[in-house]
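Hello again, I could really use a second opinion on something today. I've dropped the whole record in just underneath, so have a look.
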Amino acid sequence: MAFNQAVGSQVVHRDGGPIRVVIIEDMREVREGLTMLINGTPGFHCAGSYRSMREALDRISDESADVILTDIGLPGMSGIEGARILRERLPSVPILALTVYDNDEKIFAALCAGASGYLLKNTPPAKLLESLTEALNGGAPMSPEVARRVVEIFRDFHPPEQAEYRLTPQEVQLLKLLVDGHHYKTAAQELGITTSTVSFHLKNIYAKLQVHSKTEAVAKALREHLV
């Protein structure tokens, strides 16, 4: 990835200042290259550069980041797991996955976890900067190969005409809240129940849908239009 080439980019400034980008990448040369690219481009500023998701979670706040750029294959906590936590903590900060993985499972998992876009590491620097701005403005940038895979996933998927999972009305309501991005505490508040009751309902939902995690439940709900 050649980060040192000249880049011309139209930048939408945040409150008159540069776009603050946080980088989470374990490979030093890639991390330093991204930092040089961002700091060397007018209108952008690298507000933090971390080699692990744990380190980033300890230090990132909505006051220090406008956009988060994260690898997926990180040591320890993965970028997908971290994106889920970041989305709950910083719901207004877009998260872009930057990775070498272009398989369906990784793409779908990252988007379900809360990533606003999905870029491959062969993305040209100018396009990467454009994607950061696009994400900040509410877009969902993807590398062409990834966008094509997403289209194929939905084109090839044929949900059963009548999927009978026998979810109760409250289970359906809870599943919808999860799809909308709620976590245990906020879902409990919306439903007027305790987090323990939420956990109880989730166990039943997982069993009925034959899944093992919140991400899998949300993915299945979206694929099969259960909510």
